[in-house]
C-alpha cells in the first residue's frame, strides 16, 4: 500500500504479478 517501501512493493508485484497482492497489503508492510 501507500506505506509500503517501493522496493518491497515492486518485489511483491514481480513475485505475484497480480493486483491481489497490492490489495492484500494495502495497509502497508510491517
TrEMBL record:
Chain residue ranges for the region called Disordered: 1-30
Stated name of the protein: Uncharacterized protein
Organism placement in taxonomy: unclassified sequences, metagenomes, ecological metagenomes
Amino acid at each position: 500500500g501507500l506505506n509500503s517501501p517501493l522496493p518491497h512493493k515492486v518485489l511483491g508485484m514481480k513475485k505475484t504479478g497480480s493486483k491481489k497482492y497490492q490489495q492484500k497489503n494495502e495497509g502497508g508492510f510491517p
